[in-house]
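tmp note - Enoyl-(Acyl carrier protein) reductase domain-containing protein
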Amino acid sequence: MSLLQLPLAGKTALVTGGIRGIGRGISLELARRGANVAMVYANPSRAETAKEAVKEVASLNSGAKAVSIQADLKISSNYQKIIDEALKELGVQNIDIVVHNAAYAAPISTEVTTEAIYDDTMATNVRAPFFLTQKLLPYIPRGGRIILISSIAARRFSFGMNQTAYAISKAAVEALARNWAVEFGQSRGITVNALSVGFVETELVQSLSPEALEAYRKENARVTAAAPRSGTPDDIAQIVAFIADEGSRWVTGSTISANGGKWPI
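out:
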């Protein structure tokens, strides 16, 4: 397949949390299919990881360009900076695909959840997608895609792993997809979908406390699945790439479950 035949050639994607784990998998798959990618990350100490992600996109030889942008998504004044830098560095005028992947999770009970933890969870998982999208709307053309990464936690309790604040934030994400699909579909021709992700062992999961990680793995092993394994970032990236593609144009307002058949919903 020539570069011009790649399904996302000429498109530009912005992926938050785009340099590690699921986000990196998504960034690479979109680039593999020809899309330019702006990868947003929060922690300045991960600048080297960001450089490696940009190099990995270049190594695909798909013709896609990539840029990494460091910005704290909890600070709304960063949003225009993110957009301006993405457009300038990639040499484009539009952002065709937006993937809200960045997330914050504290696997703790309600009893010990502080206001600061709650506020950080909501700021990263709900407020940032809402107001970053608000800023992005003038740059998303008709036929654009907004994809929100949700979690099975929005729909069920993970035994042994309390994460109520995270769960309700992801329920809000799915509500955004339903409402935006109508609001932006009617006025702008943009499709909006959420992807509810099951157990995927990423760097974030592996950074949990030993107790939380053990509970996570026990829960994963306990539940019968059609696909008896944990998910991978590539499993999620393939679905995101489908939603980003022209072939998904009739799919909007949906929350797609990707959990290996553990909870068929």
